[in-house]
Structures are given as structure tokens and as C-alpha cells.
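Study the following:
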Amino acid sequence: MQTSVIAKHIQRSNRNLLAANVCLLLSVVTVILSNQRYLYNLFWGPFPMDSQALLATKDPETNSKYFVTIRGEKSLDTNVQELSKRVNKYTGETKSETVTANYLALLVNRRLLLVKAGDNKKATEFTGSLVVIPEDARTKIISDIESQNPRLRNVFLPVMLEVSDFRVWGYWLFGLGVPLTALGIYNLFKVAHRTKNPDKHPIIQSLTRFGATEAIAAQIDSEVQMEANNSTIGSIVVTPSWLLRSSTFGLNIVNLNEVVWVYKKVTTHYKYFIPIRKAYDIVICDRRGETLHIASYELGGLLRIFSQEKNINRSLEEIIRRIPWVFAGFDENLMKLWTSDRSQIIEAVDERQRQFMNQK
């Protein structure tokens, strides 16, 4: 079965699973490397910073240690606050305002350090991120203070301490990074296991319900090679006896002789109660009670919007042409029977098949 259609789908799904999870792990590594300065401060900070080190800092971006604790001599209120407003999006009216930060000037060795802090305006020790003073803070706070009191010109340091929950971003990194890394490693082991033991692959396992896997794979391979009798529409291939629907990481296999009902499902999407588009699916129901949904974008209609329903109809026609005795089209009564007493549908389809065969 090394060169069969099923084997090729197994190789494709393994390859895609491998590529996807290598990319996933590389993405995690890239995020870690691009945030290694932050992670260093997250694990080992906050670092105490004395006045001499603070006064010598011109550009905190060049410092490996920027999550720091700074002690000053006196804290001065600049009377500048950062507000969060709730605004009515229709009228523009401000519903409420919340103070999210206060800007203080911390006296450190005759220099002033701008501190974006919380409610504690009298504290003289703060812990936070040492950053370059944003341009808006420089113009709206420092420049205003210097214009009102020229003696304070050039007294403010070129850096600012931003007091916030430094570890929030770290929680997100670990909350997402750890499970994603575990998932990537787990899937790599899964690829290795499936490559070493092809018989354990889900595609092979899905064949067992039809009989001996070798014989079924050979039958599928034989029918797929008879291209004149097949129909390929997007991700599906319909042979005289089988429907194969390939996905990124697997393959759905439907024995057409087990299908009892097929219909087109139409879903209307609304925006502000206005219908904006329709989505189409093929729903295939078999005598085992299983259903397979095939979306229109899988049939080549994702970019060609106007061909989506056409491709759905064409696919349905190909299926019905091969098994004309099945129920075709959505029906509320059939749906009730499908959920309450599926055996009636199966018996009706078997009778329709017998009548069809007798007429031939």
C-alpha cells in the first residue's frame, strides 16, 4: 500500500502535521527570543537602582535591567492625571471618567524623575518599567511645568518610571506559550508514531469499519485510477463507490452505498439584521448515523463567490447520479425521523434501491 492513494494521503497529512507544528514551535521560540530582555526582567527583577545609576541612564532601551525599584527623597504631584472615559458612540457624550494613573515628580539627588503611578501620591519608592519619556508627556507635563517655573528647566531626567503590573504580559506569554509548546511537541511525537506505524494512522483506522483495510484501500485505489469514471471538485473526489474528502490533516472516506440522505444546507449571515451573504454546505448522512459536512469553500468557491452554490449543486448531482435511490434535499420530516427513528429512513432507502435495481 506504499504507493496507493490512501498511502499518499497518509504521507500528505503527516507532512502537513509536521510542518504546522514545526512552524508552531518556531513561532514560540521566536516570541521567546524577541522578548528575552523582558523575560530576563520578569524572572530576575525588579532590580534596585540607586541614584547614580539612574542619573547616568540616558536611554533605558539599552539597559538589560529596566524593571527597577527606585527610592527618592520626596514625591511631588504634577496635578496631571490619565483618564479613561466611557463615551456614547452615538452621541459622543461622556458617560463616566475613571482615573487610571497620576503623574508624579520624584525628587532624586536634586533631579526630578517623572513617575506614572497609581493613587499613592506620597510614596517615595516605586517599582516599574524605566522607559523613555513619551513625547506627549514631555510636551503636556514637563514643558508646562518648566514654562511655569523656569528654575526647573533641565531638572527632569530624560527617562520615566511607569508603574504598572509588569508581569501581566508574562502571564499571557506563559498562559499561551506553555500549552502551545506542549501541543507542538505532542503532535511531533504523533507524527513520528504515525510514520513508524502507518496502520495506526486515523485514515487507516477509518477504513476498518468497511472491512479489511488492505482490500478496501486496493478497491479505492483501483477506482481513483479510473479517472474517466470519477469527478473531482475542489477537495473531494467522487468515484463510482466512494467519496474522498481531503483536509489539511486527514481524509474523510464515505462509502456511497452507505449514504441514505444528502442535502444542501444554506446558512444566511446577518449584520445588523440585514442579510449580507449565504454559506452553502453539503450534508451527507449514512446508515451508521454519521454526518459529513462539506463547505462550499472546499469545492473551489472561496474566491469565486458566485460559483459557490454552483459547485455545491454540481457535487450533489455527482453523488445522486451514482446513488439515485437516496433521499435528496432537505425535509423537516426526514430530519425528525433522522433524530428519532433513523431505521425508517434506512428501510425506505433500501426499498427504493431494490425498486431501482428491478427497473434496470
Q: What stands out?
A: The mean pLDDT is 86. The radius of gyration is 33 Å. The chain is about 40% helix and 30% strand.
